[in-house]
Amino acid sequence: MPQNEGAHLLGNSYCAFFSLYNIVSVILDDSECLKCPEDKWPDSRKEECLPKPIKFLSYEETLGSTLACISVLFCLLTLSVFCLFIIKRKTPIVKANNRDLSYLLLISLMFGFMCSLAFIGRPNQIMCMIRQVMFAVIFSLCVSTILAKTITVVMIFSATNPDSKLKKLVGLRIPIYIVPVCTMVQVILCIVWLTTDAPFAEYNMAAEIGIIVIECNEGSRVLFASVLGYMGLLASISLFVAFLARKLPDTFNETKFITFSMLVFASVWVTFIPAYLSTKGKQTVAVEIFAILSSSAGCLLCIFSPKCYSILLHPEMNSRQYITGRNARNRGK
Length: 333
Fold this sequence. Notes:
Blueprint: H1 3-30, E1 40-42, E2 49-51, E3 54-55, H2 62-87, H3 92-95, H4 99-115, H5 125-160, H6 174-197, E4 200-208, E5 211-217, H7 221-244, H8 254-278, H9 282-313, H10 320-332
Parallel strand pairs: 3-5
Antiparallel strand pairs: 1-2, 4-5
Helix pairs in contact: 2-4, 2-9, 4-5, 4-9, 5-6, 5-7, 6-7, 7-8, 8-9
């Protein structure tokens, strides 16, 4: 083979090899797989990364709107009971067991129902801090008011019993100081919580596949547990005192109603803990809202529905003559 023909053949082979190399390189470059960022999700053709949908418990969806409607309805119901008590403020049923504490309890229950609305909607830094603190302070106010009402019943009965050792404490007016002191302890816990490790909004990408869930992180779980534990302590003390005083000859069985309300309150929040820990995403928020609404409704119905029943359907029971005769029958027993 002549030397020129050999060089020409070698040059053609080199060009063919180089062209084949370029084609393979292009194919390899086109088929290279790129991983999408955490906040994006590949499309159905695996060609580009699309933003993941964002979810949170909103008013537009059925669950959020239903919980919001229930909250507003119970708030209006509590307001109607409050107006009824204001209108009938001079009657014996309303005056029994410190009507000022009854007013305060109804107001705190109204705020308790309304605070559940703060848990619905897109979370942000401010709302995550406000809603947890508002929930903790309002419920502490509510439970401490119930505790003050229970102690009031016990002290009123002790004042009529000459053999009671608690008679000396009647003049100290202890129930007046229970509400601000117990509530202030919770306020201090919340201040420590906010200044050390406050709740904040976070993007949870592990709750649901392909979805970003915006939720509130409690920050310090220890302080969050302390806030809930303090409310549980107040409820336990109220339940214990009301249970011990359940057989006192109270005209309207206030301690029995309080005992039932605290049993409902304790049952709701005991079942709340495992439910809260076992749910993810917006279902966690829904569980907390349900616990707020059900515990508040339990207190409202157990304590005030018997009184409203007597005021509206049996007005003869709301008279001094009826109370005097009933007290006489109780002493005869």
